Description:
Helix content is 18%, strand content 37%. Strands 1, 2, 3, 4, 5, 6, 7, 8, 9, 10, 11, 12 and 13 form a 13-stranded mixed sheet that branches. It is an alpha+beta fold. The radius of gyration is 18 Å and the shape is globular. The chain is built from seven helices and 13 strands.
Amino acid sequence: MKYSMLGAALLTVSQTSVAHSDQDTKLLQNKGALTFQCDQLNSTNIDVRYEIVRSNGTDRAVPTQQIQLIKNQQQVIYKRSPMTFEAWDRNGEYIRYFPQELRSITYRPSDLRSLNMKYDLAQQFHLVSPKVKSQLNKGQISQASCFQVSHYSGQQAGQEIELKWIDTLNLPFEFTLTQGQGSLTYRLVEASPISNEAVNALTQGYNDLDFADVGDSESDPFIAKMITQGFIQHGGLGFYDSNGNSLSDGGHAH
């Protein structure tokens, strides 16, 4: 089943689904209790993790993967795989990092436009598009762990949307899309403060290359490897998941 609203409502480049082994799933199931440092949290400098739960309405729903969102005032970083992570800055610049190689590729806003990749920059910093939230019906206010959350619900593009929003953090506590018998839920499982220095340190020491120069760098072993594995492609759509699948297909554009 395709969740067509994911492109507009939730998923960033870093969040397209990727296959996980049974061992990965067991580790997620056994991760333990939720961890929130509520008394030190603020909406600007924060490190959060969400578990993703998929259900087809028949099998027992279990967490299948996690994403980590780390941000300060200037940038937001998405981590989901040890192979690669991504960052957006307030100017709309997108950078993909490859930790094992200490290499990175920068996409300027003009590069994104040339690739016809449309994005909601506010969504990148808040996980759920503020535009989508504004179109939902606001309900009750409740307590979830140590957070006060506002409930929102509605229907868009044939999907039922349930959102529990932490106003003080400008982030979702839980977000569920339901279509037919299938559902997809993002649930907050960890939140802690992080300093500007710690955020910036995550992207230091990388040898960066502009996407516009990829075509002139195919003799670079790293670039050749990334093209072969489908992570980057000069002159075409430059966004791929960690399995090499184009994010432009199947409703994955963000």
